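Quick start: what a row looks like.
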Amino acid sequence: MRATTPTPPISRIGAALVLVVVLQPASAGGLRAQTGEEVMRTALEHYEQRMEGIENYTVVQETMGFEAETYFERTEAEGRSVFLPRSSTGSQAARRAPANPYVGFFEMAEPARREGAEEVDGESCHVIGVTDFEGIEAWNPGAGSGDGGFTPQSATFFVDTDDYLIRRLLVRGTSTIQGQPSEVSFTAEFRDYRDVDGVVHPFVTHVSVEGLQTEMSEEEQEEMRRSLEEMRAQMEEMPRQQREMMERMMGGQLERMETLLAQGAMDFTVQVTEIRVNEGPPGDAG
């Protein structure tokens, strides 16, 4: 019997916390002093140029041992092309392929402020801060709608000064659970960018989230504790070889769940295994 692991309701943080970043490398921009708006618009312009001729793409990825695939399709919105997720299949634990951050990216450019420069994984980056999300629906999923709503307070983009790829994203905001607001923060490190038929995509994304415990009701936390106890008990009864194999398959998931319950924090890595471009929806024989 295949053991299952409980998955925390991270999705409540909202689509704003989750991002699949696809950008077209720009020509060398050097370190000249650009405004935050200029950096954001330059990154967006090159992204749009790169995506010309692309109508859809599918991302297959693994998260904590689970696989999922998400299908993105080109959509016109207010005269600009964006790619929205149209379907997602697989384990909920792996369906953290974030919606395209360029939904609302154009609107964020104007209030963006350049806060300096910083190195990320050895790459020099513009540090771009945004604190005004008014009217940007994609960054306010569920805002003001009661429990489960997330309201962003700040987003910091670390944009490569050379190729304008996003290397890191830090988001802070407030989530409301059972009528009580609480602080949640999210950091994503985007690594190993590859060009797959015009889609430039990070094949490794490391995600750290704090404040998750407050995203769960007391009932959900208790249910997770019971599930963890049951899983530990099942594994203790397994023969040694079977238990070791199960531990390898789970890749530290139980420890992550225990950390979540104890500290309200979690970190995980999203590994892309395949990207298919202009092949239509998954399973489409046409």
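That is the whole record. The CA atoms of residues 212 and 264 lie 5 Å apart. Confidence is low (pLDDT under 50) at residues 1-31, 91-98.
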